[in-house]
Amino acid sequence: MQRRLFLVLVLFAGAVCSSAGEHPPLVSAVDSIGMTVSNLDRSVEFYSKVLSFEKVSESEVDGSDYEHLEGVFGLRMRTARMRLGDEFIELTEFLAPRGHPTPVDSRANDRWFQHIAIITSDMDRAYKHLREHRVEHASSGPQRLPDWNRNAGGIQAFYFRDPDGHFLEVLAFPPEKGNTKWHRAPSQTPQGLFLGIDHTAIVISDTDASLRFYRDALGLKIVGESENYGPEQERLNNVFGARLHITSLRAASGPGVEFLEYLAPAGGRPYPPEEQANDLIHWQTKFLGPSAAQAELELRKARSAFVSTGVVQRSIIVRDPDGHAIQITQP
């Protein structure tokens, strides 16, 4: 009788877990962060000479598969994969068709905003180096976040732009914050001034909605939260009165994904509904996952907006609740 009761309880527990709708994470790693550029050669030179990235490969593709994957008809695109430390970016130039330029009045609270946070070993030297290369400021200068902010205090950060106007950030962690690899001795950091990419940050409209996508659907884990405001944050983002709810998430490996929800000011513009992969505001975060087909099934159930017509080249591209593009690729 006791054995029968035990079996019934085990079966019941299994049914409860199954009914909860839990499934293995759809993604296991952030592979790279991609952006569309207007001139690949110019961008490769900028990222290599100014920021110490190394080009590891280049490809040129066209054809029906890529049209169905990227949602752009008649495309031909060149892509360079570049590495800094353990992390990668992918720069893509559309030879055809050319897309829209970046709006000249893009602001850090617009919801098409995305950046990569590049870790520096020395903020003063990094800022001097960037000034020598005449980068375009997006912040008034490096900012040190105040000590009253328990989760962000002591972090130094500076926003600037690449040749196409993409926002970039250099970031320096104090000794007690950040991944331990950002605090290795100089002899263990052959990259020198710029060490790697800690995360990509995206502006979102609602943290709960974004968590349902990135945490509940994709399987990322929350690793930190903070509420940032004050003159340092305003000057960093160059947004007067900026008050942000920041949530940091990570997959099992690769850079993190950081939500920037502007609690104030109101008025950040939504992602243009007509945006395509050949437009210069386009960023595309590439995740690795065990099954592109399973990811497609689960994300269609969740009513995600698809860019791809289906699984193409072992990949799908979908949009998050605010329009940011993500690619899930099965290795």
Keywords summarizing the entry:
disordered N terminus, 2,3-Dihydroxybiphenyl 1,2-Dioxygenase, domain 1, 2 domains, 17 strands, globular, alpha+beta, 35% strand, 331 residues, nine-stranded mixed beta sheet
What does this 3D model show about the protein?
- The protein is an alpha+beta fold and about 325 residues long.
- It folds into two domains: about 120 residues, 2,3-Dihydroxybiphenyl 1,2-Dioxygenase, domain 1; about 150 residues, 2,3-Dihydroxybiphenyl 1,2-Dioxygenase, domain 1 (Roll), CATH 3.10.180.10.
- Helix content is about 20%, strand content about 35%.
- It has seven helices and 17 strands.
- The strands form two sheets. Strands 5, 6, 7, 8, 9, 10, 11, 12 and 13 form a nine-stranded mixed beta sheet that branches.
- Strand 15 and strand 16 form a beta hairpin.
- The longest helix has 18 residues.
- The N terminus is likely disordered.
Summarize the structure.
It is built from seven helices and 17 strands. The chain has 331 residues and is α+β, with helices and mostly antiparallel strands. It folds into two domains: 125 residues, Roll (2,3-Dihydroxybiphenyl 1,2-Dioxygenase, domain 1); 151 residues, 2,3-Dihydroxybiphenyl 1,2-Dioxygenase, domain 1.
Give the secondary structure arrangement, pairings included:
Elements: H1 2-19, E1 29-37, H2 40-49, E2 54-62, H3 64-70, E3 76-84, E4 87-96, E5 114-120, H4 123-132, E6 136-137, E7 143-144, E8 156-161, E9 167-172, E10 194-204, H5 207-217, E11 221-229, H6 231-237, E12 243-250, E13 256-264, E14 283-288, H7 292-301, E15 305-306, E16 315-319, E17 325-329
